[in-house]
Every structure is written in C-alpha cells, then in structure tokens.
Amino acid sequence: MKRYITLILSGLLFTMLHAQGPGDGFNCRVGDPSLLEELTGNDPQLLQRIAESQADLEAFTAEYAALSDGARSTHVVPVVFHIIHNNGPENISDTQVHDAMRILNEDFNKENADWPGVKPEFLGIVADVGIEFRLARKDPQGNCSSGITRTVSTLTYEGNQAMKGLIQWPRNRYLNIWVAASAGGPNVGGYAILPAAAQWLATQDGIVMNHTFVGSLGTGSTQRSRALTHEVGHWINLEHTWGGSNTPGLAGNCSDDDGVADTPNTVGSQNCNVNNISCGSLNNVENFMDYSFCFKMFTEGQKARMIAALNSGTAQRNNLNTPANLTLTGVEGVPQLCAAAFGSSMDLICAGGVVTFNDMSYHGVTSRTWSFPGGDPSSSTDPNPVVTYGQAGTYAVTLTVSDGSNDLSITSADQITVLPVPGQAPPVVEGFEGFSTLDESSWAVLNPNSNNTWSLTTAAATNGNNSIRIVNTAAMNGQMDELVSGTIDMSDATAIHLDYRYAYAQRATGNDDRLRVYASNNCGETWALRQQLRGINTLNTAGGPVSGSFVPNGPAQWGYSEVTNMGSTYHVADFRLRFEFESAGGNNVYLDDININGMPVSIQELASGDVGLMVAPNPAEGEAWVMFDLDRNEQVSLDLYDVLGRTVMQLHHGTMGAGAQRLPLPVEGLQSGMYLIRMQHGAGDHVVRFTVK
C-alpha cells in the first residue's frame, strides 16, 4: 500500500515512451513534474484519491487473478484514432492506422511472428492475452464511423491536454488514441496514464502517440511499431518490468517490483542483450514493458493483471466489453456497408503521371467497381488501383462498392487535374486581370486550413485593377498557404528569370511572416527553395506596423523582387513555380505582376564587347546614362526592353560619330524592376541589363 501511494504522489503514474532513433532503445519520461502539475495541479487531495484508487485496484487484481483461466474470455475493446494534424506528415493514412491495429492485435493475441524466438527460459510463459482491439463502427451519436477522426489544429505540435480537449469520445465506451506531430516533447513517442489516475482524470484518459511510432507503414517503421503495444499495456495497468523507478539501470530498482510474479526483478534494460542478468536472475528483456527494442511478449502474470483491470470499475474499464457497449460502438456482429469513400495519392499531376487510388469505404466491402474516364485503365475492381493519365484535362472518378446486399456510390467530378507537358510557352505575364476565379490549370491555390488564402482582390494593384492577396490575421499564426503555377515550357531557355511585385505590413513589431519562392523541375514532385522574404526586414513594404487591414496606398508601398538562381537543371518542359506564405500573425500580403521568362538568346545579357556598353548608375534612380564607345561613324539602334523582351521605348535610331557616347536614360517613368538595353550596329549586337530602383 505504501509503495503505491509513494508512486502516485511522486507523479510516476504518468508514463511516457520515447525513442532516440530507429536503432536506440526506448526510454520513458516517467513522472514529468510539469505534466503532473498540468493534470492534477499538484492538488494533495486529488493525489490522495488517486492513491486510494490504485490500492483498491491492486486488491481487486489480487482477487481476480485467483480465478481460473476458464472464467475469462476474449475481451473486445472499441478503439477510436483521433488524427490531430496541420496537413503535414502527421496526417497519417487510414492504411497506417489499420497496420497499427494489426500489430496491436497480433501482440495481444500471441500472433506476432517473432514470439517463438523468445529466449527459452521465458518461452513457456509467453501469454495469449486474449484482448481484441476493434476500430469503432459507430460514433457516440450512433452515426456510421470508420473509427478514425481527423482534426486540423496547430496543437498537433504540442501533443498536450489542450490537444486532447479538441476531441474525445466517452472513455467508458472507447479507447481514445490521439496521433499527432508531437507527443508532448522532443523525441517523445507516446504517453498514457494508468487506470487509477484516469479514474479521477477522465478527460485525460487515453493514449497520445507521435505519428512516427504508429504502425510500420507510412511515417511509421517496424522498429518503432511496438510502442503502441507498450502504451496500451500502461493503459490497462502494467508498469515497467523493473517497477516504478524513473530510470532503468539503477541498482535500487532491484528492491522495487511491477506487481507481476513471473517478471523477474530487474534494473531494466535499454538494449537487446537477452543474456543480461541483474538482481540475481536473468532479465526478461524481450518483454513489451521493458525499454529494449526487441519486444516480443507479455507474460501470463501480466495477462492476469491486464484482464483484471479490464474487469474493474476503475476508470470504467469494465464497461468497454459489455454486450451493450459493443452494440453501441458497432463492433459486434456482421459489418454493414454505410459509406463509400476513396482517396488518391495526388489530385494534380502532369500528362503521363500516375495516381494511386485507395478504397476507404466502410464497412464490410466485398466488391467494388472504379470508373476512371481519361485514365488507363479506365475501370478497375482492385482496392488500390494505379492509373496513368496521358492527356491534359480535368477528370472525374467514380467508385461503387457493395457488401453483397447493399450498394453505395460516390463520384468526384473534378478529382484529377492533369497539366500539359510541354507547358505554357514563356514569357508568362500574370497581372490577374480578367480573372473571376483563380484557374487551377494556371494557378492552383492550396489552402490546407480551409480559411483565408490567396484570392483575387480589387483593393490594390500595381497595374490594372486586380492583384491577389491573403487577408492575414493573428489567428492564422503558423498556417501556410500556397500559390502554384501550371507547367511552363522552359526546355529552350538559356536563363530563367522571375520578377514579381508584392506588398505586406506587420500588424505588430516583431511579426516575422515569410514569403517563399520555390521552383520544380519535375512537375511539382519535388521543390527547391529559391528565395525567402521575411516580415522583419525584406518583406515589409508598409514602413511600419498597421493595426487595421493593410491596403497598399500607392507604388511606394509595393516591393519588387527578382529570382534568377534557377540554372540549367530547370530548363525542362514541366517547370513550375510555387509561392508559399507562412503566417506569423502579421497583416495582409499581396502579389501582382508575376513575370516568368526563359531569356532566349536574342535578348539575353551578352558581353558588351569592344564598345563597352554600360548603364550608370546601376541600379538606376532619377538620372541615369547609357555609355559606350564607337571606333567609327555608323548606324546605331538603341532600344529599351523589359525583362519579358517587350520594347519599352526607342532610345536612338540613326547615325552616330566615332568616340565616347553618353546618352540620357529616362528612368523616372519606369516601374521598379529589371530592364535591358540592346545596342545594334554594324560591328555587332550587344545587350546590358540594369535595374530601376
């Protein structure tokens, strides 16, 4: 009794599992003071009540363990996975969840393929625990469910109680498992609280897992896939094999115990030395509740302890397996089809690209038929067909599923957009004039948080009436939105040049919103960062914080930027650009006059040769001059071009005398940006580039 009160008062009921890396052993953050304070407020009365519940559960366990195996049967636990994500890799697939469930059930039912390899000294006590975990088929309101929910929130990076508070199904009917980008701290794989604590902390009851420790597929790995088994063990009242110590390897752990007779006292292991001896006996290193990375087994004693916990009223665990609850959660009986659904590996590709589709319908699907107009194949009965699209266009997908008695169908009219290859010929000049909405084939918008994003506006423009903007607010802090071009044919380019105009204001000093430019040379399969503008310096065009909704009031509040660091590897027929805005809670951001050119030879910047063609000063502002030398009298043409190769003005066409020449360059009426002077004469053709501030 005293031992368990000490455990609880020191906070050791709050167990966390984390791994340092794929080849390292597991470690637990047991008794994290900050977590204990967050959950209990260090309330001494609450801690005492938890201690008394632990003592009651220990007494119940001792009594229940005396029953024969014949008095027990397979226990079914309804499970719900809550995927908390910010549209990152933590938004794991249904397939990864199903894989995690497979591993969990194999481990708890002695169906894991590696258990026969347990060291002979423990082979005779490897337990078939007899607990079956099933994804819920009904939600708390009785609606059809896949047993997987998805919630978009930046709290995924916290993995704390606030994140749990986003969604929780009743703990007396479901085992809640939250999957997130973080499980409460760096390198933490997952955490759970024991039943005695959960008795008094119902809203904290359940398991939080870092997505990389869930299943062996997707973002998971075989190495880390047993972490969930370990945490479920804690959820049904198992301690570590060395007992309640914070740290394995301590000599003092030999005097502690885990309350299980057939797990030898041990100091605990952090590696897979199956011959390790401590506390005078061979360690059960391969136990799921150790810290080694060679988990294979529960013991018969651990089985008895877990089954007792599931039959105890502590934290309402005994309600989970009741016939009434199995019916309410839909996990009992023959599965009935209630939803047709599918997913695709991508929804925007280039001509010749491949898409993998996944049937996500539930439940009890026995057959399916797909229809892929414009695809090859055009139809399929496979659960995960792979389809090639050869021609540009927008295509529908239809899936019809059956459970043998009922049929359901779903159609997505614009599921797949196929971009042309080769893409649009440069130059691409985009001022967003004449648009009513942004066209995905030319400019696709990615808005993962389904709130404010890139959209057309007439509030401000550098030319014409339109630009695009994001109405950026403090509530959008941490969110990212993308504007992605269609394909552009840069296969004949000699030098790629991008210039654009932008406007942005901080809402408060210190707002560090980011505008990034990426380029892709493979239709958007991979992207490389080419430029970043930051709110604290290069992105800010307003001059200072703007408390209201920022609208640039004239040319002075628009910035100009060029991107030229795109070499020959980007000279491809399926070149694409991406603008990404990451909010830091600042003010609105605008884009306009996006110009993309392949700089053909006829207008590229060439060496000025003997004539010494140059512009001074460069960058030019106010007064500027074009200077060169002629070695004889001859006919000379001087023309001013913008970066897209369009003639802006003729500077001189006619005969000029020999010697040094200096011509005024009228830049006052020019917008900020890059320009070119082209000089043609009898001795050659020369081009020089200059910038107007």
Number of β-strand runs: 37
Percent helix range = 10-25%
Q: Sheet bearing the most strands, described? A: 8 strands, mixed
Give the oligomeric state: single chain
Question: Mind telling me the C-alpha Rg?
Answer: 33 Å
In DSSP terms (H or I, runs of 4 or more residues), the helix count works out at 10
Overall SS class: alpha+beta
Mean pLDDT: 88
> Could you list the spans in which at least 5 consecutive residues all have pLDDT below 50?
1-25, 600-608
Could you say which overall geometry the principal axes of the C-alpha atoms support?
Answer: elongated
Beta-strand fraction estimate: 25-35%
End-to-end distance, in Å? 79 Å
Question: What does this protein structure show overall?
Answer:
By secondary structure, the protein is α+β, with helices and mostly antiparallel strands. Helices cover 13% and strands 31% of the residues. The protein has 10 helices and 37 strands. Strand 31 (614-616) and strand 32 (623-630) form a beta hairpin. The termini are far apart. The relative contact order is 0.08. The model is unreliable at 1-25 and 600-608 (pLDDT under 50).
List the helices and strands and how they pair.
Elements: H1 2-9, E1 14-19, E2 26-28, H2 33-40, H3 44-65, E3 75-85, H4 94-108, H5 120-123, E4 131-135, E5 148-152, H6 161-164, E6 175-180, E7 188-193, H7 195-198, E8 207-210, H8 227-235, E9 277-278, E10 281-282, H9 300-310, H10 323-328, E11 342-344, E12 348-350, E13 353-359, E14 367-371, E15 375-376, E16 379-380, E17 386-389, E18 393-402, E19 407-419, E20 428-430, E21 443-446, E22 455-457, E23 467-470, E24 480-485, E25 497-504, E26 514-520, E27 528-534, E28 559-563, E29 576-582, E30 589-597, E31 614-616, E32 623-630, E33 634-642, E34 647-656, E35 659-666, E36 673-681, E37 684-692
Parallel strand pairs: 3-4, 3-5, 3-6, 6-8, 12-19
Antiparallel strand pairs: 1-2, 1-7, 7-8, 9-10, 11-13, 13-17, 14-16, 14-18, 15-17, 18-19, 20-30, 21-24, 22-23, 23-30, 24-29, 25-28, 25-30, 26-27, 26-29, 31-32, 32-35, 33-34, 33-36, 36-37
